[in-house]
Amino acid sequence: MTAVRPEASAQQASSTSFPPGFVWGAATAAYQVEGAAAEDGRTPSIWDTFSHTPGKVRNGDTGDIAADHYHRYRDDVALMKDLGLKAYRFSVSWSRVQPTGRGPAVERGLDFYRRLTDELLEAGITPVATLYHWDLPQELEDVGGWPHRDTAHRFAEYAEIMARALGDRVGVWTTLNEPWCSAFLGYGSGVHAPGRTDPAATLRAAHHLNLAHGQAVGALRSVLPSSAQLSLTLNLHQVRPLTDSAQDAEAARRIDAVGNRIFTGPVLDGAYPEDLLADTAHLVDWAELVHDGDLAEISRPIDVLGVNYYSPTVVSLATEGSGTTKNDGHGASEHSPWTGCDDVAFHLANDQLTAMNWAIDANGLHTLLTGLAASHPRLPLMVTENGAAFDDYASPEGRVEDPQRIAYLHGHLEAVHRAIADGADVRGYFLWSLLDNFEWSYGYSKRFGAVYVDYPTQRRIPKASAHWYAGVIRDNALPAGR
Question: Which residues carry out catalysis (predicted)?
């Protein structure tokens, strides 16, 4: 393991200091880093099944080994400590601790997360646990998955199991990570597991994910101490119309409804937006789908909202004969994830692109954070994912230079700093990702990590951006210049 090389002090030359106690962290997800896919009682999740299905993942890659974090977590925590991380956001593999998605837990699975959190605490790093980052137990998908209401109840039971197992160690809990992706990419466009393409199932899944969140909050509150912080992480789309035309404004409204307000409405305001219900009434009977008491459960108060941001979403209404752009940055498919918005076209905000072909626009993060602060001024915010993939490689000398990532992070952290100055209550920032890892349907072809992983040897090499980030953390401030 290569030691982190802190940069020269930034505090002396910087005016962009962050508030005292600002949380600096990094994030990963279980299926992307753990490996050990069939060890200690773990059974397949929908991502195991999906990745082993020919043609679903680039190069036939799977998460069977991934970054081998399951076996190398002690070295990885030591690396986090060298980096100076104050918090580590990890997710729990549901099928590792509850293989069928129901019934008693497997202690061997729980023991891994006990060992991990103990290692983090000993290193002075706050563990932040995410209960669900897309890896539904395959047995639950086989009986209906997220479009099936019972899955929400199973999730609440799983949440209680985890709270009883780790509640004495973990004080910060996230129920779901990016439920939009689970519903709309998993059941709409099919580019994510389980790979279904049913618009009605997409909306049903979205509601049951909301319900799962609310029921899990109730379960967690019943077990955890009152000091525990509960959250939900959303990949809110910073939606912009391509032009100032009424048609493009309408396109933006519709995308905002199914991309953002389908979650923020019920979770934060206790109701689904009327325009969303009208837009999608031809696909699902909302009166049948939403039971009495659902909205009260979904809108249980949370302590902080997690915000994931990578790139803005620029849209227009497609003109007659022009067709629509099916590839909106989430992966190419003949089926749109944007349920009820088949005539909306997607555009790049500019030509400064990451390796994912996502436009680099830090202003979108500032706009997103200040907009949330204006609409929900008493709700603390946390940037729970932000980062970029570039075509990184290790030099013969064992160094990984990634100046583009440093520029990306500097720009986006400046945006966070400006948002705080403009009144947004942003409590922390988690870099995505700590490690290069299995990037879902892109396999191992995209590298988001601050730490380079040489997959054949599993050697970890902190990139130049990791050393840069270590300096930011140490000084609680950005360095002058880029």
Answer: 178, 385
At 91, is the secondary structure helix, strand, or coil?
strand
Range of the domain at 404: 18-477
Q: How many folded domains does the chain comprise?
A: 1
> How many beta carbons lie within 10 A of that of residue 292, not counting itself?
6
Q: Is residue 125 part of a domain?
A: yes
Residue 432 annotated as binding site: yes
Is 177 annotated to bind ligand?
yes
Contact 370, 424 (CB under 8 A): yes
Residue 11 placed within a domain? no
CATH number at residue 63: 3.20.20.80
Catalytic residues: 178, 385
Written as six digits, the tokens of 423 are 């009144």
pLDDT digits (tens, 9 = 90+) for 139-194: 999 999 999 999 999 999 999 999 999 999 999 999 999 999 999 999 999 999 99
* Rounded Cα–Cα distance for residues 374 and 370 (Å): 6
Residues paired with 51 in a beta bridge? none
To the question of whether residue 133 is assigned a binding role by annotation, the answer is yes
440 is in an annotated binding site: yes
- Phi then psi for 326, rounded to 5 degrees? -75, -35
Q: Return the structure tokens found at 124.
A: 């002075």
Burial class (CB in 10 A: 0-12, 13-18, 19+), 23: buried
Whether the model clears a pTM of 0.90, i.e. scores above it, the answer is yes
